[in-house]
Design goal:
heterodimer, A: about 700 residues, alpha+beta, Aldehyde Oxidoreductase, domain 3, 3 domains, five-stranded mixed sheet, 26 strands, B: alpha+beta, 5 strands
């Protein structure tokens, strides 16, 4: 076991790139100046299903500045890969409205956009099906759910146990499609030269994007370089590769010029992924004292016809509470819709809305305090695998949160607290997120001047990764922060996993730790830094491959206070408070930002966010930020985040669990439970719009 | 489509654009927005494009000291106006107090909305000093330029932050406002 002397780790270090970001010097994908570059404007399909039978480019080509128009009839051919979303402009088939079917390349942005409107497209339109229903005839059980989990798990005899249970809850919860909407739209600058393909891209993983793009063009990954020093948010939308980056590379290949392509905000609703809508049925069986005898959680979700994304909606239910009889399932239907993908806490965020709402309903049915109900059902080991938890401090989070929030005096009666026009209520919900870690490589170099450089193709999408890796390296090297440089965001650096699954710090931090340990050993052996400097390399594949004897998850407790206007039905959050158990917190300043950021997105999920599908035309109707509401500053009052001390030796050298996603998990349920407490109305379909509260 | 209209001919105009105290003689396409001129022509990429429809505030800059969404502002209309972008907020190498406060309070994560938040905050504080009320200002009451948190939240609601840094943004601005 490595001992990391606590110096930089654990301190509130400011973001190392903070000054660059506040002065406007930080360059994002679209902002890298390249000589001789031209602009691409994609043409999206205006039908949801059918075939492109003719593309008339004649008029567009007459426009000044237009260099070329690509469509499936003239686009360079791509190799087939596993994800058909990436076979851009390879076929006349249209799988969803908004799918890219052509692209105009012109000298200026204005010329490209103008000409894109002049591309004539003729379709053979087919009847589309975009409606998700729990009784859809084409529902099926996916082989696995994201990231690689069984679709269905059953233990004991839940149906018999439910039938025999003295107290039951049986309810259907719905969550809408939601779009990640990072502030920076997906953007690429693509350039081909003798070396191969260079992509300045807005991505959560330089290595994984490189590895995904290379086979499409039939070239080695070493011939592709992805550069992404700063990324304007992702929340999962920039994790899996999406069509726009491929389209930019195609356009650059065809024209022989560097091409800039930025997805418009409107197009982001079709081609960059989103959170699948879910229909979830939760059944709980319990003794009158609240002890659960059965838990059944069934989810129905959608994917597109060309690529399967199966979200793991019910998987948190597998580990949350003890019950001898349990079942969790996932059913999917392939519709003529865009392909869903990762959005902050895929699975956990919608799944825990349902489970934690149902637990609140059970608490009321049993006449128990919702915190006490959860404590009574705390499992001693992972209920599914029987493995011990490496650490599990849900109860500590609930108790600490209750104390900080002022839960003790709470009157459980719903709909009785009036303050002027407002009905006031409070609610609680648990949160959880699994611990993931992936193999990485890293190098560490000592320069004769006492400067150390650590290199790894990690990504900082706003998480503070660059900062925390610098802290980790400084401590292992036993030097001050100012002597360490961390280079990330470039696939030319040692290969690294992407920023996803709250695994970044664990994965990259392990490699950085091992590289710096190896460098320290090397310097000890040499008795100092040689005049030419010295570099060491590590690979954590072996270390990461060791199976764990523990179930490893982060936990938390979310508390919300809401006010609901009795006349308008408008619900607003008055305060949010979260307490988390996430192992060791490496940088309290940036960690707190991750928690409050996740909780803010959870507030937004609870009250505002909903991508509305147009049944007639088959696309998401409210496809901009005026119509798709995300929480604005005035929507977000006090948001507080705390954490309990948690020492867990079974995680990684830092002792940390991931913190990027757990903040959103449970927040929507805490708000919905508070709305019930305020009004007596149980809203089981998000978002909690005012029409659902007017009775 | 009207055949008499020659849609393909771009209309251009020569003008002088003043940004952060520097005059740029340029020829602009009359369709060009200030945001695209700054980013694509002048290599001033601090102002960000988040929606191109005036809905997110990431492109906020100051025109004669007033905040505007540069994606909804045509460059051709800005002859003789003084434009300030995030690159022009610092006093030489000394960051603006808001820039320092944003870093200290961790009022940013991905940083993409940050230039717009900062320009908006500078303009907003000037509006408050000029006594402009907001919807949360008490009826008939005067504006206290030190602004409480509710005032700051209301006045900064044109700038979206998807990372959810609002709580820290408000704290940073409040510190400078006082």
């Amino acid at each position: 076991m490595t001992t990391v002397a606590a110096r930089a780790v654990g301190t509130e270090a400011d973001r190392v790139e903070g000054l660059e970001k506040v002065t406007g010097r930080a360059r994002y994908a679209f902002e890298h100046p390249i000589e001789d570059m031209v602009y691409a404007a994609p043409v999206p399909s205006v039908v949801a299903r059918g075939e492109v039978i003719a593309v008339d480019v004649a008029e567009a080509l007459t426009f000044p500045g237009v260099i070329d128009v690509l469509w499936h009839g003239n686009a360079p051919k791509l190799e087939r890969v596993g994800n058909a979303e990436l076979h851009v402009l390879q076929s006349p088939r249209v799988a969803y409205r908004g799918q890219y079917i052509a692209v105009v390349i012109a000298k200026t942005l204005e010329e490209a956009r103008e000409a894109a409107l002049r591309v004539g497209v003729e379709y053979a339109v087919e009847r589309h099906d975009v409606g998700l229903r729990a009784d859809h005839p084409r529902l099926y059980r996916p082989e696995r759910v994201n990231p690689d989990l069984p679709a269905d798990v059953q233990q004991g005899d839940p149906d018999t146990a439910l039938a025999a249970a003295p107290v039951t809850v049986d309810a259907v919860y719905r969550t809408p499609a939601e779009h990640n909407n990072p502030m920076e739209p997906h953007a690429t600058v693509a350039r081909w030269d003798a070396e191969g393909l260079t992509l300045y891209d807005s991505t959560q993983g330089a290595t994984s994007l490189r590895d995904a793009v290379a086979p499409l063009f039939g070239i080695e990954p070493s011939s592709v370089r992805v550069i992404a020093p700063h990324v304007g948010g992702g929340f999962g939308a920039k994790g899996e590769p999406h069509p726009p980056v491929v389209l930019a590379a195609l356009a650059a290949r065809r024209t022989g010029r560097p091409v800039k392509l930025a997805v418009t905000r409107q197009q982001m609703f079709s081609v960059t992924g989103y959170r699948t809508p879910t229909i979830q049925r939760v059944r709980l069986g319990a003794h009158p004292d609240g002890h659960l005898t059965a838990i059944v959680h069934d989810a129905v979700e959608q994917s597109s016809t060309i690529h399967e994304f199966a979200e793991q909606t019910t998987t948190p239910t597998r580990i949350m509470y003890a019950a001898p009889n349990r079942r969790t399932t996932h059913r999917l239907v392939r519709l003529d819709v865009p392909t869903p993908s990762w959005m902050r806490a895929p699975g956990e965020a919608p799944g825990m809305f349902a489970l934690e709402s149902a637990m609140d309903e059970l608490a009321a049915a049993c006449g128990l305090d919702p915190i006490e109900l959860r404590i009574r059902n705390e499992p001693e080991v992972d209920p599914e695998t029987g493995l011990p938890f490496s650490s599990r401090n849900l109860v500590a989070c609930l108790r600490d949160g209750a104390r900080r929030f002022g839960w003790a005096d709470r009157d459980p009666a719903p709909g009785v607290r009036r303050r002027g026009r407002l009905l006031i209520g409070t609610g609680v919900a648990a949160s959880t997120y699994p611990v993931y870690r992936s193999a990485c490589q890293a190098t560490a170099r000592a320069e004769p001047g006492g400067i150390f450089t650590v290199r790894i193709a990690a990504a900082d999408i706003g998480t503070g990764a660059r900062t925390v890796l610098t802290q980790i390296a400084a401590d292992v090297l036993r030097v001050p922060l100012g002597r360490v440089r961390v280079a990330i965001g470039d696939s030319a650096l040692p290969r690294a996993s992407l920023a996803g699954g709250s695994s970044g710090t664990a994965s990259w931090g392990t490699a950085v730790t091992r590289a710096c340990e190896a460098l320290r050993d090397e310097l000890d052996r040499r008795g100092g830094t040689p005049s030419t400097g010295v570099t060491v390399s590590v690979d954590t594949t072996e270390e990461n491959g060791e199976p764990s004897r523990f179930a490893r998850h982060a936990f938390g407790a979310q508390f919300a206070e809401v006010g609901v206007d009795r006349d308008t039905g408008e619900a607003r959050v008055r305060r949010l408070l979260g307490v988390f158990a996430v192992g060791r917190v490496l940088n309290p300043k940036t960690a707190r930002s991750q928690f409050i950021g996740g909780m803010t997105m959870g507030l937004s999920m609870a009250l505002l966010e909903e991508s509305v599908l147009d049944r007639e035309f088959g696309d998401y109707l409210n496809h901009d930020l005026a119509q798709y509401h995300v929480a604005a500053c005035a929507d977000v009052p006090a948001v507080e985040a705390y954490w309990v001390e948690e020492s867990d030796p079974h995680l990684n050298p830092m002792g940390s669990k991931g913190i990027g996603e757990i903040g959103i998990v449970g927040t929507a349920a805490a708000v919905a439970n508070a709305v019930h407490h305020a009004t007596g109305i149980r809203v089981r379909d998000l978002p909690i719009r005012l029409d659902k509260l007017l009775t | 489509m009207n055949d008499d209209e020659d849609l393909s001919a771009p209309v251009t105009m020569e003008m002088r654009l003043s940004v952060n105290g520097i005059g740029y003689p340029i020829t602009v396409d009359t369709r060009e927005t200030l945001l695209d001129t700054l980013r694509e022509r002048l290599d001033l990429t601090g102002a960000k494009k988040g929606c191109d429809h005036g809905q997110c505030g990431a492109c906020t800059v100051l025109v004669d000291g007033r905040r505007v969404t540069s994606c909804l502002t045509l460059t051709v209309a800005l002859d003789d106006r003084e434009i300030t972008t995030v690159e022009g907020l610092a006093d030489g190498s000394v960051p603006h107090p808001l820039q320092t406060a944003f870093v200290r309070h961790d009022a940013l994560q991905c940083g993409y909305c940050t230039p717009g938040q900062l320009c908006s905050a500078v303009g907003m504080l000037a509006e408050a000093r000029a006594g402009w009320p907001s919807i949360v200002t008490a009826d008939g009451g005067s504006v206290d330029a030190r602004l409480d948190e509710a005032e700051i939240r209301e006045r900064m609601s044109g700038n979206l932050c998807r990372c959810g840094a609002y709580v820290n943004i408000v704290a940073a601005i409040a510190e400078v406002a006082r």
